[in-house]
Specification:
Blueprint: H1 23-40, H2 42-45, H3 56-79, H4 90-95, H5 104-124, E1 133-136, E2 142-145, H6 146-173
Antiparallel strand pairs: 1-2
Length: 174
Amino acid sequence: MSDTIEACPVCGFVWDDVDPATVPGRVRTATTAMAEVLRTHPDAMTQRPSPERWSGVEYACHVRDVCWNLRDRIVLGAVEDVPIPHGLHTDDRIAMGLYTRDTPEITAGDLVVAGDVVARTMECLPPELAERTLIYGWPRVAERTLHWVAAQLLHECEHHLDDVRENVTLVAGG
């Protein structure tokens, strides 16, 4: 990984502190917990608490799509030398209305499956592949290890779980 310790300014997540062996279990835990929030508070999950904040369903759909996208990036990085994978185009997905037909129940099921599939993929890969690299476009274009990509996946899952939980409070209080 890089010599620079990167930390999320919102949640404090530090990519370099992640033990790769813990990622699959933590991804499953976060995606299952997010699915439970979607199922427990379905009405709150379809509302945006404010114009600049996504709804719970939008956050969950994003995490689902991140799981699929990063799974493909991990496989690509494992078999090709320093590939440049395509981006996720998150804002475009929302702008095109791709999440408008995703209900809390449908998204909860998708999320559990996506989290489990990417976790199983990571469990299958030999540890020596963790240092293989690819080009990653966020937060800046840089060569990143598959270990970093796995940590990024974990960050997306855990950070947005907090967002979804917070939305319950914001929608109920708003």
